Amino acid sequence: MSETEIAEDGRVIANLFLQACHRHKILAATAESCTGGLIIAAMTDIPGSSSMVDRGFITYSNEAKMDMLGVRRETLDAHGAVSRETALEMASGALVNSRAGITLAVTGIAGPDGGSADKPVGLVWFGLAMTGRETIAQKHIFDDRGRDYIRRQTVLTALKMGIDALK
């Protein structure tokens, strides 16, 4: 899939996610690390998105995750920034610190460096929180086809996760 096709697919998926938010009469928020705001950008590229998008938290550093989302230092120390536990706390923290009814969180290793045997480049943890529901997390390991590819696939996967949660 070319970068143009991924970008177009991202617009389509973002639009479907926002339509689902509109049907449920809820706002969306994001808590993003490895994507650096690409998920919220995909949503806000859609005309009329202001009626379905509340905010995006760009929490690239551990300090930002703690300050903006309430991720606990103990979680980061015990499990690392790229972990199920951190993704869950990011999603929950975005829900608590926004007016959103659904939040999408991502934390991962987009490369080209930073990977290890147990946390390879391409590893991304996704968190999803919704008002009145248990917060969930999913793990994906994307092929290491470069930083842009991993980040774009992360955007698509997060938005699809949101659509599935709103079905």
UniProtKB/TrEMBL annotation:
Q: Which residues belong to any copy of the CinA C-terminal domain?
A: 15-161
InterPro entries according to UniProt: CinA-like_C (IPR036653), CinA_C (IPR008136)
Q: Where is the signal peptide?
A: none
Pfam families on file: CinA (PF02464)
Q: Which Gene3D superfamilies match?
A: CinA-like
Kindly provide the name given to this protein in its UniProt entry: CinA family protein
Protein species of origin:
Mesorhizobium denitrificans
Q: What is the lineage of its organism?
A: Bacteria, Pseudomonadati, Pseudomonadota, Alphaproteobacteria, Hyphomicrobiales
